[in-house]
Amino acid sequence: MTKNAFESHQGTPIWVQPSLPVAADSWTAVLHVVSAPDHNSAGAVLTDLSPAIRAGMTIPPIGGLLKRIMDLAIAGTALIMAAPVMIVVALLIRMTAGGPAVFSHSRIGFGGKPFDCYKFRSMVANSEEVLKAYLDANPHVCKEWEETHKIRNDPRVTLLGGMLRKSSLDELPQLFNIIRGDMSCVGPRPIVKDELKRYGDHLGEYLRTRPGLTGLWQVSGRSSMDYANRVALDSQYVRNWSVWLDIVILFRTVFAVMRFDRAS
């Protein structure tokens, strides 16, 4: 790749349209990732510049049209089959916890574009306050939260919510995200803006594809895995994507969700 294919400016990641076509295996070089001390600002700046980044992209998400057709076929079929279960789950949430059955949370998608990721509500209504109080009362848990963004025996999760998480039923509304084009059936974990800085040199790979309802992370340990390994698996998936890999992951997901002890 020529030197003018990318450039840095005062530690800020900038998209520059290359003068020559960029091969798929060298695409990540187009995104300059700042050094570790500047990661905090990098995540914010990259997200803010996402429209410009997307405007400069000439390469579609990994898998292109073929992967998109697979997503629509699989998600559409799954929605029809899962509709009765989703209706029952929504009614149970309304009866036991009150309030809306589905909530959305901002995640970062292809090209750095934020999107609303849907889930069945599995937490109490005042989850933010409960989390803060729990971390204040249990300082030793703060490290676990900072490293994985998860807590064992999370006090925010309701009894029904715990069952939904163990069975992965809480993620069924993400089928709508797939239909909308925000997500794919298989892909990296959908992450929040604050997690961008933790991807380091693998950030460009994450931004090359849509996040997935399932992925290598889902079938390789789920919550028992540390963050560095999750990032490595996301990167491995992007570098080695194929239709066959997606089929294998989808097949293995059926068995992974049955491993309740390893559920998220």
Explain this structure.
The protein is mostly helical. The chain contains 10 helices and 4 strands; from the N terminus they run αααββααααβαβαα. The strands form 2 sheets. A two-stranded antiparallel ribbon has the order 1-2. Strand 3 (184-186), helix 8 (203-206) and strand 4 (212-214) form a beta-alpha-beta unit. The longest helix has 34 residues, at 64-97. It starts with 38 loop residues before the first helix and ends in an 8-residue tail after the last helix. The relative contact order is 0.13.
- Give the strand order of the largest sheet, numbering strands 1, 2, ... along the chain: 1-2
Q: Give the SSE order as H and E letters.
A: HHHEEHHHHEHEHH
**Classification by helices and strands:** mainly alpha
Indicate the proportion of strand residues: 5-15%
Can you summarize the main beta sheet? 2 strands, antiparallel
Helix content: 40-55%
Mean pLDDT: 77
Count all strands and give the number: 4
Distance between the termini: 41 Å
Task: Give a short overview.
With 264 residues, the chain is mainly alpha-helical. Helix content is 45%, strand content 8%.
